[in-house]
Amino acid sequence: MSSLEYEIVDVFTDRPFAGNPLAVVFGAEGLGGDQMQALAREFNLSETVFVLPPTDIEATYRARIFTPETELPFAGHPSIGAAVTSVRRGRAAAGRLVQECGAGLLPIVVSDADSATLTGGTPTLSGQYSPAVLLDVTGLAADDFAGASATLTAAGCGLEFVYLPVERRALARAWAMSDRAARAGISQISVFAWDSSTRSAYARVFSPGVSVPEDPATGSAALGLGVWLVANGWLPGEGTTAYTVHQGYEMHRPSLLECTVTASGGAATSATVAGHIVPIAKGQIMVPPFVG
Fold it and tell me: What residues make up the domain containing 177?
């Protein structure tokens, strides 16, 4: 049976065995989606990305991204990991790359120092949730809530998350109950404590709807957070503002996501997320049999 080359890299960290681990698989253009899903299940990481030839002339490469149970149109740490790993392996030159994925064509600027900046897709806001429902989903109490003036919605730049602002002391106790999340119609939720003085968020991200109980670093959620913060007036509604997201501490995988959000008229128009990656392992993996 033939095999494929892969690398394991840690994303949104400058040291090994921190950040968010990612499997990057090359040479899988002959595989079906069910085979890719089987490989993602075998790696059993929050996401596995397959780097494929582009179908759009404007793109540098095409990415297909899988959790252990489903395919995603877009995700942050697979996008940055795929771009930096492709450059390091000589498959693309450092500088501006364009990733083709389910969320469209996304620009990624790769430096020569194993880091990249990703621009998310079109900002979106949707839904509205009561604090009581979100606190119930995450096992928290009313006095943990820190968003009295906020409108609780989902937000994203290619992949949406629901956002719940809480007191920082509550983060250690937060956990998304999959049955409660399903009843509330919530697939992915970011529970965060916001420090307005430093424009920093301390976050935990739970994705029970895509079989990722908790993620140590979530670029797509960091992008959506900027959209949410602008919509609620917690970041300026005009111009470009930097903010940071600290994540993964409760999982013993500290991560740093460096972000910007650009706004006009009180609404986000674009957002970026940047981070480093560290190569961890590489090898070959067997091609699973075709099922579909």
Answer: 124-273
